[in-house]
Structures are given as structure tokens and as C-alpha cells.
Amino acid sequence: MPNIGNTLAKKLNLVGIETPTQLIETGTENAFIRLIQIDKNACYNMLYAIEGAIQGIRWHNLNTIRKLELKNFFDSIQNSQKKLNHVKGQ
Predict the structure, then answer these.
(1) What stretch of H or E contains 31?
(2) Against a cut of 0.90, is the pTM above it?
């Protein structure tokens, strides 16, 4: 699949996604949620890479609207994690 190098493939395997079919069935957002459980440094470029792989294209060629949706999704996850960390710190 495009965008899926050895490092990302290993991380996907660690979260139980071992085939292209499993990745497609899991979907971009759900696959990313699994990944951030094992990789706190997962970034929106990884999110774009997964979406591009599912669509069968390089992530650079993603539709601008879809990129914005994914960026908003990523930001919402980041904000949720910051709130959770703040609560844990109190």
C-alpha cells in the first residue's frame, strides 16, 4: 500500500492490523486511535499516510477537504489528551 513503510507497518501489526483489508475495514480514524495508544508521538502526517494508503494514493494527493477533516480529528484527539493529562496532574 502507498505510504506504508516498514516502521508504520510494524506499528499497525502491533495494534492488530496486519493486512490491507484489515486496515480498510478498520478505517483511518480508528486505526489512528489504536496507534496513538502505542505511539504517543503519532502525528497528523501518519494519519494522512493511513488515509492515503486506504485510498491507494500518496498522502500528498489527498483531497483538501479530507485533509482538513483529518486535521480537525487529530486536533480533537490532541485537545482531549491535553485535558486528560491536566486532570491527572491535579
Answers:
(1) helix 28-38
(2) no
* Number of separate domains in the chain: 1
CATH number for the domain spanning 73: value is 1.10.150.20
Residue 47 cell numbers, joined: 494519519
Q: Strand runs (DSSP E) across 1-90, as ranges? A: none
For the chain, the helix, strand and coil percentages under 3-state DSSP, each to the nearest 5: 75, 0, 25
Tens-digit pLDDT profile for the chain (90 aa)? 999 999 999 999 999 999 999 999 999 999 999 999 999 899 999 999 999 999 999 999 999 999 999 999 999 998 877 666 656 665
- Let me know if residue 1 belongs to a domain: no
**Residue 23 in contact with residue 53, Cβ under 8 Å?**
yes
